[in-house]
Design goal:
Helix content is about 40%, strand content about 20%. Among the domains are: about 10-120 and about 325-355 and about 410-470, nicotinate phosphoribosyltransferase; about 195-285, Aldolase class I (TIM Barrel). It contains 17 helices and 21 strands. The strands form five sheets. The protein has a seven-stranded antiparallel beta sheet. The longest helix is centred in the N-terminal third of the chain and has 25 residues, at about 120-145. It is globular. It has helices at about 10-20, 50-55, 65-70, 75-85, 115-120, 120-145, 160-170, 180-185, 195-200, 205-215, 230-245, 260-275, 290-300, 310-315, 425-435, 440-445, 460-470, and strands at about 30-35, 45, 90-95, 100, 110-115, 150, 175-180, 220-225, 255, 280-285, 305-310, 325-335, 335-340, 355-365, 370-375, 385-390, 400, 405-410, 410-415, 420, 455. By secondary structure, it is an alpha/beta fold.
Length: about 475
């Protein structure tokens, strides 16, 4: 396992030196990781917690790391000696991977000595921002397709790690396979792929190329039919080879379209395959697809059974950054919690103070999610009594719940520096995402003009936030 301890911003370490000098480095602090809204974010799919836990368990400074830090001329020898024995000893609470999450929610909270909690900020954001972004994009693409999406993005990813962990996140988001062989081995996920145009071009004729491929893979023969002329050459040649395969006791898998008018070509391909006696042969499409183009193709009646999606998935092309942040929520002095708040001229950017817990409230009759509810950690939220919820900014917007159920959304990920949450296989995470996604009304997850899902604060948390806002007033003592 790679040692990623130096995967941090320099200011985390300079602040660490400062905390050390002020003898505040062992002071317990609470930080929340959450993301802010964006016009393209309807919901997100949490991912990356597995790698976050691995990183925290392996946190340590090697001799080489310390030598490099010493060479910068910024850090004292007693601080470097302290770092030599540093491990992560704190607690981390997080949602499960695959959880449907929304802006402002503390999807991960770190409670640890200040220097540790500060040091891990950058790496945690790097891992969780990226995988949550790609899992969310995949979920939206898969929802538009109705299933059958293959992740094909490695060659367009922004680096090897982005391709590998992006493939993992895409599987969490609902993809059925990846073209990424390394990710397939690393995460034990299905891999898929057949041929490129270069295979067809390397043979004297398209027909000879198809026959050669069929000889190598008689039971997994899916032919790329758009190298020269899809309808006048590719499909007739594919059908000819399919007939030869059937005569030899094999059944073809199907054809792939990678260019042109995919709606028209897929419908024509379906007609030709059915007429030739191959109704079970699939039509696969690829080529700069995303949830918008897939929905358009389906509205045009395209006859596409599976979808290869690359660039726009692995890069989340329309939203290239999730915008996750990591903010101080509390410190402890002599065992007493001191809540902290960051102020802003924009109400939505004012943080929620204190050590908190997060719940999902479900309608007792339909079982569908009604709202998420953020409360102080010592509050009891169990559905045993009526509950009035309200908008955290526009407080006149209220709803009283009587017949409802409650689910706590977070659990310990790491306790005292050791992993506490089980390692879930990717198929189990993906199934968890699918099941939880189904518990939301379509109005909240639809692609166009979705309703804004409610994320509300408890009365106690709201009052605490107001008290802190009023105590700072309009002065300069903002935190």
């Amino acid at each position: 396992m790679r040692n990623l301890t130096l995967l941090t911003d320099l200011y985390q370490l300079t602040m660490g030196q400062g905390y050390f000098n002020e003898k505040r480095h062992e002071e317990i602090a609470v930080f929340d990781l959450f993301f802010r809204p964006n016009k393209l974010i309807t919901y997100s799919v949490a991912a990356g917690m597995e790698q976050a836990a691995d990183y925290l368990e392996n946190l340590h400074f090697s001799e080489d790391d310390l030598a490099y830090l010493r060479s910068l001329g910024l850090f004292s020898e007693d601080f470097l000696a302290y770092l030599k024995d540093l491990k992560f000893t704190g607690d981390v609470y997080a949602v499960r991977e695959g959880e449907i999450v929304f802006p402002y929610e503390p999807i991960l909270t770190v409670k640890a000595p200040m220097i540790q909690a500060q040091l891990v900020e950058t790496a945690l954001l790097t891992v969780i921002n990226h995988q949550t972004l790609i899992a969310s994009k995949a979920s939206k693409i898969c929802a538009a397709a109705g299933g059958g999406v293959m992740e094909f993005g490695l060659r367009r990813a922004q680096g090897a790690d982005a391709g590998v962990y992006g493939a993992r996140a895409a599987m969490i988001g609902g993809c059925v396979s990846t073209s990424n062989v390394y990710a397939g081995k690393l995460f034990d996920i299905p891999v898929s792929g057949t041929m490129a145009h270069s295979w067809v071009m390397n043979f004297p004729s398209e027909l000879e190329a198809f026959r050669a491929y069929a000889r190598s893979f008689p039971d997994a023969c899916l032919l790329l039919v758009d190298t020269y002329d899809t309808l006048r050459s590719g499909l007739p040649h594919a059908i000819e080879v399919f007939n030869e395969l059937r005569a030899a006791g094999h059944e073809p898998k199907g054809v792939r379209l990678d260019s042109g008018d995919l709606a028209y070509l897929s419908k024509e391909a379906r007609k030709m395959l059915d007429k030739a006696g191959f109704p079970d042969a699939i039509v696969c499409a690829s080529g700069d697809l995303d949830e918008y183009s897939i929905r358009s193709l389906k509205e045009q009646g395209a006859k596409i059974d599976s979808w290869g999606v690359g660039t726009k998935l692995i890069t989340s092309a329309d939203l290239p950054a999730l915008g996750g942040v990591y903010k101080l929520a509390a410190v402890y002095e002599n065992g007493r919690e001191i809540p902290k708040i960051k102020l802003s001229d924009t109400a939505e950017k004012v943080t929620n103070p204190g050590f908190k817990e997060m719940y999902r409230l479900y309608d007792g009759k339909s079982g569908k999610a009604v709202a998420d509810y953020i409360a102080l950690a010592d509050e009891t939220v169990d559905g045993s009594a009526p509950l009035e919820i309200f908008h955290p900014v526009e407080t006149w917007k209220r709803m009283k719940l009587e017949n409802y159920t409650v689910r706590k959304l977070r659990a310990p990920l790491v306790l005292k520096g050791k992993r506490a949450m089980p390692r879930y296989p990717i198929p189990e995470i993906a199934e968890y995402r699918r099941a939880e996604y189904a518990r939301f009304w379509e109005e909240y997850t639809r692609q166009d003009m979705p309703h804004i899902y409610k994320v509300d604060l408890s009365e106690r948390l709201y009052r605490l936030k107001r008290e802190l806002l009023e105590s700072y007033g309009k002065g300069d003592a903002r935190v």
